[in-house]
């Protein structure tokens, strides 16, 4: 299974989709997606009220090229533990994680639906790709060192998406 994401565009809406097989049971992956201490290890500082309609705030701990930090605010729009988590956020749109058991492993489907200007599409898909790589790393015990995050990994992934999506 390829770890690369796919991009579909319909009008102003972009849909990114990733499918990953994670070598950990659903309950372990669910914890990494919903426990704020674990979320910070691979994605962002998280404040999460894990109930339908609950509040979420994700504050990225790395910065963009201009030194800006992204903060996404929103709500838990769908919740079916430990199989489905969907967040409706202001800047990243709808973020949906679906988990299916596969023996001792988990099939993860991650979808992002958002209005993305064309010039940001490859950056966004590369960003989510590397975060899902960081999730897999975290499940193996490797936490991202956010002040020194491996931007070179993102650069290589971004270059690949620029080449394939052009």
Descriptive account of the structure:
- This protein has 166 residues and is α+β, with helices and mostly antiparallel strands.
- The protein has a single domain (6-165), classed as 2-Layer Sandwich (Alpha-D-Glucose-1,6-Bisphosphate, Chain A, domain 4), CATH 3.30.530.20.
- Helices cover 30% and strands 37% of the residues.
- The protein has four helices and eight strands, in the order E-E-H-H-E-E-E-E-E-E-H-H.
- It has an eight-stranded antiparallel sheet.
- Strand 3 and strand 4 (55-59) form a beta hairpin.
- Helix 3 (121-139) crosses helix 4.
- The radius of gyration is 15 Å and the shape is globular.
- It starts with 5 loop residues before the first strand and ends with a helix.
- The mean pLDDT is 94.
List the helices and strands and how they pair.
Elements (H helix, E strand, L loop, with lengths): L5 E5 L2 E10 L3 H9 L1 H7 L2 E4 L6 E5 L11 E10 L3 E6 L3 E10 L2 E11 L5 H19 L11 H15 L1
Antiparallel strand pairs: 1-2, 2-8, 3-4, 4-5, 5-6, 6-7, 7-8
Helix pairs in contact: 1-2, 2-3, 3-4
């Amino acid at each position: 299974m390829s770890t690369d994401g796919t991009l579909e565009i319909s009008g102003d809406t972009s849909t990114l989709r990733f499918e990953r097989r994670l070598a950990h049971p659903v309950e372990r992956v669910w914890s990494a997606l919903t426990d704020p201490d674990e979320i910070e290890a691979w994605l962002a500082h998280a404040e999460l009220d894990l109930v339908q309609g609950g509040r979420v705030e994700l504050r990225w701990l790395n910065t963009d090229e201009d030194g800006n930090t992204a903060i996404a605010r929103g709500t838990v729009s769908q919740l079916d533990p430990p199989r489905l988590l969907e967040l409706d956020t202001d800047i990243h749109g709808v973020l949906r994680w679906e988990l299916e058991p596969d023996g001792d492993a988990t099939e993860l489907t991650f979808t992002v639906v958002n209005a993305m200007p064309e010039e940001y599409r490859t950056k966004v898909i590369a960003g989510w790709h590397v975060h899902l790589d960081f999730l897999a790393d975290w499940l193996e015990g490797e936490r991202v060192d956010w002040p020194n995050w491996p931007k070179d990994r993102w650069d290589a992934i971004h270059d690949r998406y620029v080449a394939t999506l052009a």
